[in-house]
Amino acid sequence: MTKIKKLAAFFLAFVLLLSFCGCSAKGEGGILTEDGSLHRPDPVIRFGSFPIHFDYYRYLYLSQRDQLMGENEDFFETYPKMEQHLKDSVFRYCRYLAGFYALLSEYDVFLTSDEQDLVDDRIQTIKEGYESDGGNFEKTLKEIYLTEELYRKLIEEEELETKLQNTLFLNTGAPFYQTDDQVADYVIKSFCRARHIYCEKEEDAQKALDALQKGESFGAVLAEYNEDATMEDLTDGRYFFFGSHEVSYDRAAFDLKAGEYSNIVSCSDGYYIIYRMEMEETLIRADISNFRNMVYSALYDKLLEEAVAEITPVCCALYDSITPKTLR
């Protein structure tokens, strides 16, 4: 089974240690306030008794910020909605993290001493291999907003997530194992199948919508106006569960009936017109292994959400001050 990773979403593979982001060393980072001073509130967010410590939050936020920006220093000025999208994305991750640790406790999943030794061996091998090529492991970790302690924690969480998913879905007698019939039934009842037209600018999306309203077929309008290259070859559409996209996208898609298209849907990266398609059980059963992973991912999402559903998060006093420019 393909691993259904949620907590690995922000986890950087070791090859990314070769990149340089120009971050400051541990202890020098913080939230820049109006008086020019740096503050390191800890924790940044608390979910019940579970804290998201400053160094962890800083790594999540800044690493994703850099991925979004690339070499475009004016990215957030050009796409102002992405600033809130970034913050929301990191918050969702933190919420998942709290749910993840709750599930570890509920299902008694932990790393044995031998497994912890394997984590240590893995890190030591990486460190020795990197430094044998003339690199400075600790310095490079700092340049991608990590410490060796936090790096180890991320690897531990990756291993724990694999064990948790095996416990939930794959091991003998796993509580959420799904047969082929159960997978097909779940997809038909709980998923959406759709195509979309994406435009970066709202005026272009409006032109596409006008064409649809004049009677042009969705396929023809998609061919003329769509700016999402991945959608051009997906003539069978894309199957997904609620929570796979931004809320505005998913809500619009699931509100449609098969054969209907949406109005313009505003998302952080642009504008969409969504066309919902009929489910086809033959397509689902022909690719049942892939759909099983999708169902497990949907169930995993649900379990993570349920684990923290009754918890009200508490953010630090400076949380609202966190922006791509103020978090250092």
Count of domains: 2
Shape: globular
Query: How many β-strand stretches?
Result: 9
Structural category: alpha+beta
Write down the overall mean pLDDT.
89
Largest sheet: 4 strands, antiparallel
| Rg from Cα | 22 Å
Strands of the largest sheet, in order across it? 6-5-8-7
Strand composition percent: 5-15%
Count of helical stretches: 13
Tell me the distance between the termini.
39 Å
Low-confidence stretches: 8-27
Helix-strand pattern:
EEEEHHHHHHHEHHHEHEEHHE
Q: Helical residue percent?
A: 40-55%
Describe the structure.
The structure is a single chain. This protein has helices spanning 54-69, 75-78, 81-106, 113-132, 137-143, 148-170, 180-190, 202-213, 218-225, 229-232, 247-255, 281-286, 288-308; strands at 31-32, 38-39, 45-47, 50-52, 191-199, 238-241, 265-267, 270-276, 313-315. It is built from 13 helices and 9 strands. A hairpin with a 2-residue loop joins strand 3 and strand 4 (50-52). The chain has 2 domains: 7-177 and 308-321, no CATH class; 180-282, Chitinase A, domain 3 (Roll). With 328 residues, the protein is of the alpha+beta class. Helix content is 51%, strand content 11%. Mean pLDDT is 89; it is low at 8-27. Strands 6-5-8-7 form a 4-stranded antiparallel β-sheet, with helices on both faces. A 3-stranded antiparallel β-sheet has the order 4-3-9. A two-stranded antiparallel ribbon has the order 1-2.
